[in-house]
UniProtKB/TrEMBL annotation:
<keyword id="KW-0812">Transmembrane</keyword>
<feature type="transmembrane region" description="Helical">
    <location>
        <begin position="53"/>
        <end position="72"/>
    </location>
</feature>
<feature type="transmembrane region" description="Helical">
    <location>
        <begin position="123"/>
        <end position="141"/>
    </location>
</feature>
<feature type="compositionally biased region" description="Basic and acidic residues">
    <location>
        <begin position="279"/>
        <end position="300"/>
    </location>
</feature>
<feature type="transmembrane region" description="Helical">
    <location>
        <begin position="245"/>
        <end position="263"/>
    </location>
</feature>
<feature type="transmembrane region" description="Helical">
    <location>
        <begin position="92"/>
        <end position="116"/>
    </location>
</feature>
<dbReference type="Pfam" id="PF01790">
    <property type="entry name" value="LGT"/>
</dbReference>
<feature type="transmembrane region" description="Helical">
    <location>
        <begin position="20"/>
        <end position="41"/>
    </location>
</feature>
<keyword id="KW-0472">Membrane</keyword>
<comment type="function">
    <text>Catalyzes the transfer of the diacylglyceryl group from phosphatidylglycerol to the sulfhydryl group of the N-terminal cysteine of a prolipoprotein, the first step in the formation of mature lipoproteins.</text>
</comment>
<feature type="binding site">
    <location>
        <position position="142"/>
    </location>
    <ligand>
        <name>a 1,2-diacyl-sn-glycero-3-phospho-(1'-sn-glycerol)</name>
    </ligand>
</feature>
<keyword id="KW-1133">Transmembrane helix</keyword>
<comment type="pathway">
    <text>Protein modification; lipoprotein biosynthesis (diacylglyceryl transfer).</text>
</comment>
<dbReference type="GO" id="GO:0008961">
    <property type="term" value="F:phosphatidylglycerol-prolipoprotein diacylglyceryl transferase activity"/>
</dbReference>
<protein>
    <recommendedName>
        <fullName>Phosphatidylglycerol--prolipoprotein diacylglyceryl transferase</fullName>
        <ecNumber>2.5.1.145</ecNumber>
    </recommendedName>
</protein>
<keyword id="KW-0808">Transferase</keyword>
<keyword id="KW-1003">Cell membrane</keyword>
């Protein structure tokens, strides 16, 4: 191999700290969550919302996002988990990879809606603050796929082809050992980070509120993901009419984004008057912070 991207040693996928097994994939996801919370908090602060509310929302969104992400993956890869010789406990083995982004978006959206409802913050305000942060979080999460030796595409002779060991259960049968593959995880990282920059630049030029920033995120991510899934050959999702479920989901994301952009632009052509839905919302969030500070000082 003259030039290529080597996969990391398999032992890098996990390590021990005492009796605990730490999975690198999980660390990448956690890093993405932390980055998304921090970016979202800063963006909310510019709208007059306490940045700490991003953490409150994450407490709802993250658990639901993980649950929905896993079960979306499982039920679009039924053959991998159900049938003769399959171990049903693998359904819950999220550390081995297999957490669908579209499932996490559904679960996370439900969690954010609950948090916003409780705090009196407009859902669209939070969604627009979160949208570009999602692209950063997804980029960090995709590094986990690299450590797990997964998410690769068709064979390639390009100098950035990805090395995948022939003993890998995801290695396509019939191909010669040493075959290089398109590094889809890297392509998605580049696409997502480019999208992060594009969305922020568009936000400077246009008033992207009332869900319009979220709409652009869905269009950007869905368009890129639909292409990447079309050249993916490591175990992908089940198909319908010969098209993988993840490609259908990507088409759906683009369609939802277009509809959301058109509808919200017509219904709300201007800026949001306030990010709050209740007159007491700002006071409620401030009281929560004050209570938290009091508890911290008392503990100290």
């Amino acid at each position: 191999m003259k030039t290529s991207i080597p996969s990391p040693p398999p032992e890098w996928a996990q390590f021990q700290i005492g009796p605990l097994t730490i999975h690198t994939y999980a660390l990448c996801i956690i890093a993405g969550i932390v980055a998304a919370v921090w970016i979202t908090g800063r963006r909310l602060a510019r709208r007059g919302v306490d940045p700490g509310f991003a953490i409150d929302a994450a407490l709802w969104a993250v658990p639901l996002g993980i649950i929905f992400a896993r079960f979306y993956h499982v039920f679009t890869h039924v053959g991998d988990y159900f049938g003769p010789g399959k171990n049903l406990w693998d359904v819950f083995a999220i550390w081995d990879g297999g957490n669908a982004l579209y499932g996490s978006l559904i679960g996370g959206a439900i969690g954010i809606w609950i948090a916003c409802r409780r705090a009196g913050v407009r859902f669209w305000t939070f969604a627009d603050a979160l949208a570009p942060a999602l692209l950063v979080a997804q980029s960090l999460g995709r590094l986990g796929n690299y450590f797990n030796h997964e998410l690769f595409g068709l064979p390639t002779t390009l100098p950035w082809g990805l090395q995948i060991e022939a003993t890998n259960p995801k290695f396509p049968p019939g191909l010669a050992p040493g075959t290089l593959f398109h590094p889809l995880f890297l392509y998605e990282i580049i696409w997502n980070m480019l999208g992060f920059v594009v969305l922020l630049l568009l936000e400077r030029r246009f008033t992207l509120q009332w869900g319009r920033m979220l709409a652009l995120y869905l269009i950007w991510y869905g368009a890129g993901r639909s292409f990447l899934e079309s050249i993916r050959i490591d175990p992908s999702s089940d198909s319908f009419l010969g098209i993988p479920a993840n490609v259908w989901a990507s088409f759906g994301a683009v369609a939802i984004g277009l509809v959301l952009l058109i509808v919200q632009s017509r219904r709300h052509p201007g800026a949001e008057p306030s990010p709050f839905t209740r007159p007491d919302s700002r006071a409620v969030l401030k009281k929560k912070d004050a209570d938290a500070d009091t508890e911290t000082k008392a503990a100290a």
